[in-house]
């Protein structure tokens, strides 16, 4: 009688989770690289309006193609749905991007990423006030940890970089608020429209707004930028906009929003490391302590969401 060792294979569910986790991690790191690319571009004297227009104009064809594919065979949108998508596109990807890009003129890439990672807690606060959703003790703990971390990192940067950091931090925080409002407003709409269709449509709207702003504010001669600005803008459009947007959406479909958010906490750490390597930004003990607190706050909030997902019945 021959004995054969049993062959073990990863279950389809385990494989899907691993793939989803990899997508979420890749999306978080690529999103974080945006701040590095923007800071590198500013070294060539380009202004924020031109830089945003270049980024969105280069990304727009990819989103237009995705919108066309996602809309094939899908039910037509109502006038109200068109209006809401226009609103969230302007809010979540135009206003948020503009405030973020301008803020990066005053703050470090690491502080920018830390502030943007307050978005989950801002969503929580908006949901509690607007949608009357209760706030639990875990929610309060997540808020305290996250804002405590920003206070540490903000105090460090303010003491070394002057009053401009306060303005930059306020602008980036405004960006986080705009994106949080986008998430809240799109919560119900995404179920009817579809995630890919909604994101692609909203990004096309935002791209049109960014280009229109450029045409209204700057002369066409502003497009005469050094070649590195165009290379950096192309990298920003493809690797820090298009790919992470879809990678994150596919990750949510595979592992759920809670686990995807947890994986996304690598973002601030990635930005600090990338800023150190490519921008020569110093890493201080205060900055590391602030990062740890923000990550702990988002971790608490993500674990709460993941637990809720496990308790919910399967569709």
Layout of SSEs?
Blueprint: H1 12-42, H2 48-71, H3 79-103, H4 109-116, H5 119-130, H6 137-161, H7 164-193, H8 195-217, H9 227-263, H10 266-279, H11 285-311
Primary descriptors:
single chain, 315 residues, mainly alpha, 81% helix, disordered N terminus
Q: How far is it from the N-terminal to the C-terminal residue, by CA?
A: 47 Å
Q: Give the helix proportion (percent range).
A: over 70%
- Structural class by SSE content: mainly alpha
Query: Major sheet, described briefly?
Result: none
Shape: globular
Portion of residues in beta strands equals: under 5%
Which regions have little confidence, pLDDT < 50, spanning 5+ residues? 1-8
* Mean pLDDT score: 80
- What is the succession of H and E elements? HHHHHHHHHHH
The number of E-state strands comes to 0
Question: Summarize this, please?
Answer:
With 315 residues, this protein is mainly alpha-helical. The protein has eleven helices and no strands.
Your description of this structure?
The protein has helices at 12-42, 48-71, 79-103, 109-116, 119-130, 137-161, 164-193, 195-217, 227-263, 266-279, 285-311. Helix 6 runs antiparallel to helix 7. The radius of gyration is 20 Å and the shape is globular. It has 315 residues and is mainly α. The longest helix has 37 residues, at 227-263.
């Amino acid at each position: 009688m021959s004995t054969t060792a049993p062959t073990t294979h990863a279950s389809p569910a385990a494989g899907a989770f691993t793939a989803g986790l990899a997508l979420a991690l890749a999306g978080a790191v690529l999103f974080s690289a945006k701040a590095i690319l923007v800071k590198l571009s500013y070294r060539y004297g380009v202004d924020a309006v031109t830089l945003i227009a270049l980024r969105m104009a280069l990304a727009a064809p990819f989103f237009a193609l995705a919108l066309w594919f996602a809309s094939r065979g899908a039910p037509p949108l109502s006038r109200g749905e068109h209006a809401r998508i226009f609103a969230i596109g302007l809010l979540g990807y135009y206003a948020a991007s503009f405030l973020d890009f301008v803020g990066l003129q005053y703050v470090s890439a690491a502080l920018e990423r830390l502030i943007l990672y307050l978005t989950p807690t801002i969503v929580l606060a908006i949901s509690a006030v607007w949608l009357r959703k209760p706030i639990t003790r875990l929610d309060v703990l997540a808020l305290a940890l996250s804002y405590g971390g920003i206070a540490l990192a903000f105090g460090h940067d303010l003491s070394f970089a002057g009053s401009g950091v306060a303005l930059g931090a306020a602008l980036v925080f405004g960006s986080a608020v705009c994106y949080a409002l986008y998430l809240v407003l799109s919560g119900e709409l995404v179920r009817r429209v579809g995630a890919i269709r909604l994101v692609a449509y909203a990004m096309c709207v935002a791209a049109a707004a960014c280009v229109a702003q450029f045409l209204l504010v700057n002369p066409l001669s502003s497009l005469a930028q050094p070649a590195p600005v165009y290379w950096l803008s192309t990298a920003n459009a493809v690797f820090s906009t298009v790919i992470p947007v879809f990678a994150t959406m596919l990750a949510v479909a595979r592992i759920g929003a809670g686990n995807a958010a947890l994986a996304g906490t690598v973002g601030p750490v990635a930005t600090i490391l990338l800023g150190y390597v490519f921008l020569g930004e110093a890493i201080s003990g205060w900055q590391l302590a602030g990062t740890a607190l923000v990550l702990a706050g988002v971790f608490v909030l993500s674990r709460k969401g993941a637990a809720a997902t496990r308790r919910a019945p399967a569709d």
